[in-house]
Amino acid sequence: MKVKKFIIFFILISFLLVSCNQDEISNQKIEPQSENALYLGTVVDISIYDEVDKDIFKTLFKEIEDIENKMSLNIKTSEVNKINENSGNDFVKVSEDTFNVIKKGKEYSSLTKGHFDISIGPFVELWQIGTENAKVPNKEEIKNALALINYENIELNEEEMKVKLKKQNMKLDLGGIAKGYAADKLAKTLKENDINHAIINLGGNVLALGSKPDGSPWKIGVQNPFEPRGKHVAIASVENKTVVSSGVYERNFTENGKLYHHILNPFTGFPVDNNLESVTIIADSSFDADGLSTGIFALGLIDGLEFVETLDGIDAVFITDKKEVYISSDIKKNIEMTNNEFKLAN
Fold first, then answer.
1. Which of 24, 314, 329, 341 is the most buried (most CB within 10 A)?
2. Which ranges of the chain have pLDDT less than 70?
3. Is the distance from CB of 70 to CB of 102 less than 8 angstroms?
């Protein structure tokens, strides 16, 4: 994926989802220690608001580099690529990290009734959205790939940490879940080093560790899906929470006047079309939020909101193409609308 042209832009608006509270932090004379780097196809920005040895950043970026090396489709020797290369043939032994992500990904695929499916790889490869080669596949290509998409054809051997894809040419794609796993792992390392106030931002996947240093909640912006990153529709007040968004604005292209985005429907092979512009998940675990955000988006407003209401510790903000905002019940009190172009609809 061609991400280099976005790096400067992302760095200039680093901390994009928490920019709304920068004046407050400045007034308190709190200067975070921050570093960023490019991993998992995005800019990873970590800001720590406690006294800390700067060597901690080396540890953190080493951890995320390790995850990328195991799970990225862009790294030929990754464990996920080895699984894909052996599809229809043999089990592949993998690390605990990769096994855990695939296992949890399969669980989320089942929980969302296949609307999120980590075996989506053949469709992702066909469309190539987010690269310079993005194109609309023909009907025959879609039909052939459709026969390969089924999370139930992922076999797991938990005792030996082995994974097998039953059908030849099946392909796993962990892009919809790996960042969440990485964010939680980085947060665990921070806690183990007695760091209690920090923000981890993986290209819009934000994990707020603890509270702000003065004890008040972090203020995290809910992305405006009609504007560039850093423009928000509402502010979520959170502590020890993650805020993860999925939307049509993230990666897309236009062909013959029609916009095609990267959230693909596993049942049709085409981008999800349900009048939603974005879904933002607020949860205790970034792993959960990342794994659920795509599936909840694909479920649509009515089914998605109903589904969220059944989940403990999971909340969501839905934004439609008519600029209507729907918020799940448990989080409403912590959401402040900030853009009068948008209407709170429930």
1. 314
2. 1-30
3. no
Total Cβ atoms within 10 A of residue 76: 9
What SS3 string covers the chain?
Answer: CCCHHHHHHHHHCCCHHHHHHHHHHHHCCCCCEEEEEEECCEEEEEEECCCCCCHHHHHHHHHHHHHHHHHCCCCCCCHHHHHHHCCCCCCEECCHHHHHHHHHHHHHHHHCCCCCCCCCHHHHHHHCCCCCCCCCCCHHHHHHHHCCCCHHHEEEECCCCEEEECCCCCCCCCCCCHHHHHHHHHHHHHHHCCCCCEEEEECCEEEEECCCCCCCCEEEEEECCCCCCCCEEEEEEECCEEEEEEECCCCEEEECCEEEECCECCCCCCECCCCEEEEEEEECCHHHHHHHHHHHHHHCHHHHHHHHCCCCCEEEEEEECCCEEEECHHHHHHEEECCCCCEECC
Residues forming beta bridges with residue 218, ordered by sequence position = 238
Q: Which residue has the tokens 């939603």?
A: 276
Measure the CA–CA gap between 4 and 130, rounded to whole angstroms. 12
Dist. CA 272–CA 249, nearest whole Å = 13
pLDDT of residue 201: 95
Encoded tokens for 306: 């109903």
pLDDT at 199: 97
CB-based contact 168:88 (threshold 8 Å): yes
d(CA 335, CA 317): 9
pLDDT on residue 12: 38
* CA 149 remoteness from chain centre: 20
pLDDT value, residue 29: 52
Token pair recorded at residue 168: 């030849």
For position 2, what pLDDT does the model report? 39
pLDDT of the residue at 16: 41
Q: In this structure, what are the phi and psi dihedrals at residue 185, rounded to the nearest 5 degrees?
A: -70, -40
User: In sequence order, what are the beta bridge partners of 219?
Assistant: 237
Is the separation of the CB atoms in 62 and 32 below 8 Å? no
What pLDDT does residue 118 have?
97
